[in-house]
Amino acid sequence: MSPQDPLDIDIDTLLAESARVAAEYDASENEAEHYESNQQDLQDRQALRRIAGLSTELQDISDAEYRQLRLEKVVLIGVWTEGTILDAENSMKELSALAETAGSQVMDALIQRRDRADPSTFIGSGKVVELKQIVAATGADTVVCDGELSPAQLRSLEQKVKVKVIDRTALILDIFAQHAKSREGKAQVELAQMTYLLPRLRGWGDSLSRQAGGIGGRGPGETKIETDRRRINDKMAKLKKEIKEMKVARDTKRQERTRHQIPSVSIAGYTNAGKSSLMNRLTGAGVLVENALFATLDPTTRKVTSNDGRIYTLSDTVGFVRHLPHQLVEAFKSTLEEVAGSDLIVHVVDGSHADPKEQIRAVRQVINEIGAGDVLEIIAINKSDIASPEVMMQLLREEPNSFAFSARTGFGVDTLLAAIEGSLPRPRVEISVVIPFTRGDLVSAIHERGQILSEEYLPEGTSIHAMVDGALAQQISDLQ
Ligand SMILES: Nc1nc2c(ncn2[C@@H]2O[C@H](COP(=O)(O)OP(=O)(O)OP(=O)(O)O)[C@@H](O)[C@H]2O)c(=O)[nH]1
Ligand SMILES: [Mg+2]
């Protein structure tokens, strides 16, 4: 897109501008500080836990250059409201992995025990002071909050800590933006970013409207924000149209597959579970494998021939995560429809993860959300080479249709493959025909899509006894 394009909006500039206008508004307001009692502060302090060993450094600078990351020093904060401390720590570990995937260096991580997040600053005001000290001591330039914060919360925390504050959703959107390669992927991410941005602009716009109402006039800030909002809406409409056009091409391809009754298998699962590694094992597709979250954004589909000679497709898909931002689910709908439209989902689980059951739950939630809840599912528990055997055994016992394997060592892959191929929809129509040699195309179609029971070459053609799908049976009967 050319820089002259009125729709080419630089989100950072826009955000900065909106933040400035919002800050002006806030400064004009009577700053009623939200003080809590000392007792609460004491409780806050006692509830504060630091997670040791979470700060890690990027090991490979060339990797960072390749992805053109903005190397930021970040401090993570989380509010632990329910569940065990282990759950809270796992959540922070994941946030840390997300931050590192986005190219940041994690300086420190804090969790605060509270009944609920503070409505004005997410963490309690006592903690805010402490956070500010940690930020200063570590030289951090960004604070990342584990959760989705309201625009007002982000703003007041930012003002108090004096560095940029972002939430988990913004972080995930940032990773997606960095990893999107295809035109469709980029458009989908941009749409998700704008959907995220729009209510945040509205928040500021509303504040300004209230201000404008008070003095009975329209401030220049409001006009600016309304223009921005209109431009974003225009851009979003344009993106949606583009995505729709690309969806047509995708649908055509899928219809083609359906028409030929080629079974399709989707590899889905939590991010970093080893979906692409399995895809590569099974097809040699050479999909990028990386110990990073959301390494794969664009689906890769390969034609595979089963051991009994039938053809099906195998697709590697984008990974899921807990609380996957709904803007992303919405924007990636056309990509995710691939999963919903498949005959079988191979749900890859990282057996070596601290809480694989929680990952299974989170993935199933997204699978249901995209309307794929009824698709047949195989649970494929990966990384058997490093997972605890007890955890693997427990998962295998609890999940009826489950298999253990290791994409790295190849352990269990054959059994898993046999289970996948055994679950493919079976051709149902039995035929017994002699096909003239001029119709070699039909003979190969029966080989690819059907199941040969017997085959014999006669002088008048190929005599075949086979099971085929309805469409192929129709084509063959038309021949007679
Ligand atoms: N030890 C071990 N590591 C594995 C195994 N399979 C995959 N990995 C590693 O797990 C990491 C993630 O693998 P990927 O195949 O990229 O995972 P993915 O599910 O495609 O991840 P995203 O595309 O990022 O959602 C990589 O570092 C792999 O090398 C395995 O069987 N054993
Ligand atoms: Mg992948």
Please supply descriptive tags for the structure shown above.
nucleotide-binding; P-loop_NTPase; 480 residues; Rossmann fold; 3 domains; disordered N terminus; alpha/beta; 5-stranded mixed sheet; binds magnesium ion; metal ion binding; GTPase_HflX_N_sf; elongated; 6-stranded mixed sheet; magnesium; 17 helices; binds guanosine-5'-triphosphate
Report what the structure shows.
The chain contains 17 helices and 14 strands. It has a six-stranded mixed sheet, sandwiched between helices. A five-stranded mixed sheet has the order 1-3-2-4-5, sandwiched between helices. It is of the alpha/beta class and 480 residues long. Residues 1-7, 25-71 and 202-219 have low confidence and may be disordered. It has three domains: 33-179, Rossmann fold (3-Layer(aba) Sandwich), CATH 3.40.50.11060; 261-423, Rossmann fold; 429-479, no CATH class. Helix content is 50%, strand content 18%. Helix 1 (11-28) packs parallel to helix 8, helix 7 (168-179) runs antiparallel to helix 8 (183-215) and helix 8 runs antiparallel to helix 9. The chain binds guanosine-5'-triphosphate (GTP) and magnesium ion. Magnesium ion binds next to helix 10.
CATH architecture of the largest domain: 3-Layer(aba) Sandwich
Q: In which order are the strands of the major sheet placed? A: 7-8-6-9-10-11
What fold name stands as the CATH topology of the largest domain? Answer: Rossmann fold
Low-confidence stretches: 1-7, 25-71, 202-219
How would you sum up the global shape? elongated
Spatial separation of the terminal alpha carbons: 56 Å
- Give the total of beta strands: 14
The distinct bound ligands, ions and cofactors come out as: guanosine-5'-triphosphate, magnesium ion
Mean pLDDT: 79
Coiled coil: 11-45, 222-256
Subcellular location: Cytoplasm
GO cellular component, one term: cytoplasm
Keywords: Coiled coil, Cytoplasm, GTP-binding, Magnesium, Metal-binding, Nucleotide-binding
